[in-house]
């Protein structure tokens, strides 16, 4: 757990004092990733760097796992906090192994233990130990280097990690891959992480919580969904962008809004039955046909059902698309747009049909938050003191 | 032909004066490294002090060696060492300061700030940062400074033969005063070859001392 | 503020020291000794400066065009190996250069000027070449792209951008030159070296210093002079001194 208590930094510049961070109060619960978000110069990086005293706080306190760090020796403090920076900062004069094991060495681990740890870290970041440990940073690609950077920060198994735009210098494709890998690692490691970013999409993807900064002040601190649904003021709203409702699609799983009411037909039903069910369930165009194991087998369209006689098994079309329960709404919406559908069948892990998701349900779910907001417009988020 | 015969004849003398030359320059630059590197590191902490020290060192290098000897002789005569190897060694010591201090200062100052921040962030003490990161990264550039100093001072030491310091310059000074082209040419060629060989040998040492992972960057400098 | 007051005290101390040094030298007659050498100093200093001017300007006139020619793309092959030789050449001690020059050309002003010329030539050629080769390729591409002829590229883009490095080469070279001129006395070309070397032989400190101090001052003045010219001549946008 990381708790900041009234953390403040004032820089003395020739033009006078500049308050880079103004009484920041916040708490990151254990095992969560908190993304500090904001435009450049907003104080997010200063706030992060005050935690390991790369920037010396003017006033205020930092608590880690409940303990005040003020009295701790700076080097001891830093050795117990993982630190990843955008420029990676691997030491070019050391091998990959020496880079990864530097903190354990500084902490006085014995050789066998830190050597084993290096191999363990390589396995965690999915790089072959024998192929990489003896190489030098200059021989690796940017993405590989930053994986090593993460491994170096995690080598001594610190409870807390600070990451300053860690994936900012990596090309977009590799960035997405490394973000996913990192989230998977975090599920196993359960570190408490502070993560600076200026990229709203990265913040929503990586953060359990997002803290938006502006001109040295913490403006809003909430979950990504709350942030997108209820931006606290015009600044946050414009920073999030006009398509912020669409960004929320990433955050909601199909599972949350699926209804198990789905009308289906079987291959042995007549088209008459199909037409009746289409009208009954209020479908515009077609109805899903499932096989005997309840897997999607095809669709029967209304026009066919109305004009033809016979059995469904002879008059169906292929299923345009299905979504899984763990897919996010962004994928569901994309499939609906691509196939000009207003609803999609949902399948569970075994591939059997378990319900449907409709455009109506999606818009109503997203809209519910906005409607709710108009009622409690003046309620500040509990984490912020004013 | 005549010159070659002379060189063969005096091979023993040539060897002993070459060794003397190397020893004098080696000792002086060695001491200069022991003073120059710490000074170069120390002045990275204070920009204004650094400018002052580098300015002073560059003025010293500007002074012609024979003029420096001329100024030092009366002063050192007070302690009975006006002539001989003492003023020569002191001159080499002074001339070596600029390349060694300047290269050390530049190299330490040019260490990528990201590396410095990473080193701080993982909890290295200032001494560990210097020992594990900054000095290893600066070694190639510091060595280049030492190399410049050695090559420069092989020439200075040759002139020091005129104040009785010995070394290969003795062949040249005798060659001129005795109008003996054999000694003159042997001396001039020997000191030139020495400078070239030492330059290449130190370049080799510099490459060997470059941390392995950095040889790619070092090749560019 | 303690630093400022310390500086004031230091200045006062220096003034007092100079005053007492003056009193001492007046009473001991050293000043008269120096004055006795003044005509020699004047005559030899002119000779000294003349040697520098001759060899230095010759070297500049040859070295810069040589560096430009070598940096042309068509010369690339020859240039690399020639620069290797020049690099080796710069490690040769100046006394050896003068000695070799004397053994081929004999005694007098001509071998001295030639030796100085060679010693000065190498660093200037090297820096001219390196400076021109170091011009950002993007600039060259842009210059070619907007339709400049090779000559226009050289004079409008390459030389202005390489000028700082070329001046740095001239500064190094002329410092070496001025430092080597005293040695020219050894091969019979005169100059302030005459007072220094004779002073050493006769063990006459006053004579020695009469040569050494002007030589040292001359070297510092020449160095400062070229630095000032570089500061004024190199365009502001590519002049680190003015940044």
UniProtKB/TrEMBL annotation, chain A:
Enzyme Commission number, as recorded: 7.6.2.9
Catalytic activity: a quaternary ammonium(out) + ATP + H2O = a quaternary ammonium(in) + ADP + phosphate + H(+)
EC class of the enzyme, as a word: translocase
Classification via InterPro entries: AAA+_ATPase, ABC_transporter-like_ATP-bd, ABC_transporter-like_CS, CBS_dom, CBS_dom_sf, Gly-betaine_transp_ATP-bd, P-loop_NTPase
PROSITE patterns, per database record: ABC_TRANSPORTER_1, ABC_TRANSPORTER_2
Subcellular location: Cell inner membrane
Family affiliation: Belongs to the ABC transporter superfamily.
Assembly behavior: The complex is probably composed of two ATP-binding proteins, two transmembrane proteins and a solute-binding protein.
NCBIfam families named in the record: proV
Name of the featured protein: Quaternary amine transport ATP-binding protein
Source organism (scientific name): Vreelandella subterranea
TrEMBL record, chain B:
Transmembrane segments: 22-41, 53-72, 78-95, 137-164, 184-205
Record's subcellular location: Cell membrane
Membrane topology: Multi-pass membrane protein
This protein's GO CC annotations: plasma membrane
Record InterPro entries: ABC_transp_perm/SBD, MetI-like, MetI-like_sf
Source taxon at top rank: Bacteria
GO BP term, example: transmembrane transport
Main location group: membrane
Alphabetical list of CDD domains matching this protein: TM_PBP2
Keywords annotated in UniProt: Membrane, Transmembrane, Transmembrane helix, Transport
Pfam families for the chain: BPD_transp_1
Domain ABC transmembrane type-1 positions: 18-204
PROSITE patterns in alphabetical order: ABC_TM1
Recorded family membership: Belongs to the binding-protein-dependent transport system permease family.
PANTHER family documented for this protein: GLYCINE BETAINE/L-PROLINE TRANSPORT SYSTEM PERMEASE PROTEIN PROW, OSMOPROTECTANT IMPORT PERMEASE PROTEIN OSMW
Protein name as catalogued: Osmoprotectant transport system permease protein
TrEMBL record, chain C:
TM ranges: 49-70, 82-100, 106-124, 162-187, 207-234
Topology of this chain in the membrane: Multi-pass membrane protein
InterPro entries: ABC_transp_perm/SBD, MetI-like, MetI-like_sf
Protein's cellular compartments: Cell membrane
SUPFAM superfamilies in the record: MetI-like (SSF161098)
GO CC terms, sorted: plasma membrane
The organism's place on the tree of life at top rank: Bacteria
GO process annotations (BP): glycine betaine transport; transmembrane transport
Record-stated family: Belongs to the binding-protein-dependent transport system permease family.
PANTHER family: GLYCINE BETAINE/L-PROLINE TRANSPORT SYSTEM PERMEASE PROTEIN PROW, OSMOPROTECTANT IMPORT PERMEASE PROTEIN OSMW
Name of the protein in its database record: Osmoprotectant transport system permease protein
């Amino acid at each position: 757990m990381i708790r900041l208590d009234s953390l403040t930094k004032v820089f003395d510049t020739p033009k006078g004092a500049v308050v880079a961070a103004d009484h920041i109060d916040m708490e990151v619960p254990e095992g969560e990733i908190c993304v500090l978000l904001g435009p450049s110069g907003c104080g997010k990086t200063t706030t992060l760097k005050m935690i390991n005293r790369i920037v010396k706080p003017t006033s205020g306190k930092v608590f880690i796992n409940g303990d005040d760090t003020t009295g701790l020796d700076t080097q001891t403090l830093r050795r117990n906090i993982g630190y990843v920076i955008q420029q990676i900062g691997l030491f070019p004069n050391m091998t990959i192994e020496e880079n990864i094991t530097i903190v354990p060495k500084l902490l006085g681990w014995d050789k066998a233990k830190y050597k084993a740890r290096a191999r363990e870290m390589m396995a965690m970041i999915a790089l072959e130990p024998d192929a990489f440990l003896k190489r030098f940073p200059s021989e690796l690609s940017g993405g590989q280097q930053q994986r090593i950077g993460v491994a170096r920060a995690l080598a001594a198994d610190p409870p807390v990690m600070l990451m300053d735009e860690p994936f900012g210098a990596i090309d977009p494709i590799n960035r997405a891959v490394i973000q996913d890998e990192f989230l998977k690692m975090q599920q196993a490691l359960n570190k408490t992480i502070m993560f600076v970013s200026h990229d709203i999409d990265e913040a929503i993807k990586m953060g359990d919580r997002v803290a938006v900064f502006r001109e040295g002040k913490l403006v809003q601190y909430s979950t990504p969904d709350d942030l997108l649904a209820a931006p606290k003021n015009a600044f946050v709203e414009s920073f999030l962008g006009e398509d912020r409702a669409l960004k929320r699609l990433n955050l909601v799983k199909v599972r949350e809004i699926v209804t198990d009411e789905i009308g289906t037909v079987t291959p042995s039903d007549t088209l008459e039955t199909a037409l009746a069910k289409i009208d009954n369930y209020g479908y515009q165009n077609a109805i899903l046909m499932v096989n005997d194991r309840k897997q999607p087998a095809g669709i029967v369209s209304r026009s066919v059902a109305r004009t033809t006689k016979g059995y469904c098994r002879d008059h169906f079309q292929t299923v345009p698309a299905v979504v899984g329960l763990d897919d996010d709404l962004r994928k569901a919406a994309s499939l609906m747009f691509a196939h000009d559908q207003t609803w999609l069948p949902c399948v569970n892990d075994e591939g059997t049909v378990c319900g449907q998701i409709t455009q109506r349900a999606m818009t109503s779910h997203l809209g519910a938050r906005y409607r709710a907001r108009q009622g409690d417009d003046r309620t500040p988020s509990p984490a912020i003191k004013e | 032909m005549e010159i070659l015969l002379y060189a063969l004849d005096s091979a023993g003398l040539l060897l002993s004066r070459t060794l003397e030359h190397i020893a004098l320059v080696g000792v002086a630059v060695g001491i200069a490294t022991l003073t120059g590197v710490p000074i170069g590191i120390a002045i990275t902490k204070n920009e204004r002090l650094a400018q002052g020290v580098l300015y002073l060192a560059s003025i010293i290098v500007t002074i012609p060696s024979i003029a420096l000897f001329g100024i030092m002789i009366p002063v050192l005569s007070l302690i009975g060492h006006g002539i001989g190897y003492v003023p020569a060694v002191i001159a080499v010591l002074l001339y070596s300061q600029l390349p060694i201090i300047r290269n050390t200062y530049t190299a330490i100052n040019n260490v990528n700030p990201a590396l410095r921040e990473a080193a701080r962030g993982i909890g290295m003490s200032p001494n560990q940062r210097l020992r594990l990161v900054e000095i290893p990264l600066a070694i190639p550039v510091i060595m280049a400074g030492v190399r410049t100093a050695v090559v420069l001072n092989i020439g200075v030491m040759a002139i020091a033969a005129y104040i009785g310091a010995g070394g290969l310059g003795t062949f040249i000074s005798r060659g001129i005063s005795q109008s003996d082209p054999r000694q003159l040419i042997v001396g001039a060629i020997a000191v030139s070859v020495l400078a070239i060989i030492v330059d290449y040998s130190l370049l080799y040492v510099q490459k060997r001392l470059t941390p392995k992972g950095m040889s790619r960057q070092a090749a560019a400098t | 503020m303690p630093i400022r007051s310390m500086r004031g005290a230091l200045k006062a101390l220096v003034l007092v020291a100079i005053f007492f040094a003056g009193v001492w030298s007046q009473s001991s007659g050293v000043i008269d000794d120096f004055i006795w050498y003044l005509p020699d100093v004047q005559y030899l200093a002119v000779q000294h400066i003349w040697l520098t001017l001759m060899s230095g300007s010759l070297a500049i006139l040859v070295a810069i065009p040589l560096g430009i020619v070598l940096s042309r793309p068509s010369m690339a092959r020859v240039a690399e190996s020639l620069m290797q030789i020049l690099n080796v050449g710069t490690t040769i001690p100046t006394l050896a250069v003068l000695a070799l020059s004397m053994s081929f050309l004999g005694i007098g002003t001509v071998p001295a000027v030639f030796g100085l010329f060679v010693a000065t030539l190498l660093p200037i050629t090297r820096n001219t070449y390196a400076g021109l080769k170091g011009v950002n390729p993007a600039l060259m591409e842009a210059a070619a792209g907007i339709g400049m002829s090779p000559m226009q590229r050289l004079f409008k883009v390459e030389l202005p951008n390489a000028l700082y490095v070329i001046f740095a080469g001239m500064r190094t070279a002329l410092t070496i030159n001025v430092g080597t001129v005293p040695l020219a006395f050894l091969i019979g070309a005169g100059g302030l070296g005459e007072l220094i070397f004779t002073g050493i032989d006769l063990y006459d400190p006053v004579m020695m210093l009469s040569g050494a101090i002007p030589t040292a001052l001359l070297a510092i003045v020449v160095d400062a002079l070229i630095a000032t010219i570089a500061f004024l001549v190199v365009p502001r946008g590519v002049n680190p001194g003015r940044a």
